[in-house]
Amino acid sequence: MFRMGTSVAVAGASGYAGGELLRLLAGHPHFEVVAATAHTHAGQPVTELHPQLVTYCDLAFSDTTVEVLGSAELVFLALPHGASAALVAELPPAVKVVDLGADFRLADAGAWQRYYGGPHAGTWPYGLPELPGRRAEIAASDRVANTGCYAAAISLALAPLIAAGLVEAEDVVVVAASGTSGAGRSAKLGLLGSEVMADLSAYKVGAHQHVPEILQATGARTLSLTPVLAPMARGILATVTARPSLPGLTTDQVRGALRQAYADEPFVHLLPDGRQPHTAATLGSNSVQLQAELDANSGRVIVTSALDNLGKGAAGQAVQNANLMLGLDETTGLSADGVAP
Questions:
Q1: What are phi and psi of 282, to 5 degrees?
Q2: For 40-49, 180-189, 193-202, 300-309, which range has the lowest pLDDT when averaged over its residues?
Q3: Catalytic residue annotation
Q4: What is the pTM of this model?
């Protein structure tokens, strides 16, 4: 049933990100899934919660224990924020870990306290390979902190422009819409279909936990993020705006900086002039679509960014990081092409 290779365990496999990890791993030529854990669903067949994953028809969820996870060579942690650190502390040092939670993303313990609370567990290499210097750091590491979904969409749009000195690091403003899967699989009144359909609503306004992560990743100093819940299952569309730092800055200069930054990147695509990113075009893929314009009235730089929050924003990014950690081509088991309609 499973392909032989590096043994892999997925913790939190009953959730949306965990299920997407299992889907990607089923098609990966070098990974063998030996355990899928889900504490409250232990003993249930994987296909009871993920009927689309017929590859795993003979696999049941295990309890999330150090013994189960420690039997694998590579562990993906798709757990709630704050739940990874205690498990990691007990895992054998030889086990490679990609944490999809926030536990090890932030270098600033004070920022962790303000946005997440509880003790700061430490800092691992940050798992967004397209940022300068990150790819080599990830490849040399046994423990990697996967980026957050909003952070991936926004950082890839913003970081090259700050690095090139084209926009100010102050007064970055972002409005970003996300599908409901970004809130996880737990039953919540505000995520019911009849509540979400034909509706848009902002949430965590002025205090979203990805803000310090984005500041850390991009070099921005101040950032206002307004997340919006959109009536779709998956996807993120971010509109990132910043003040130009050069007089007479042109759209061609902005697009040129993005083109130069991502010319050799398999998963980040600057669209042709006049085309805007679509979330639907990224579904099921590990791709990011970008476009840049100058606002005709304010002169601010606008970069729009779209990705699949469960793909490049979570599970796809995690597999890309794991590929690098194991010395594989980072595109192995991943697609740059989305699914439509």
A1: -105, -5
A2: 180-189
A3: 149
A4: 0.95
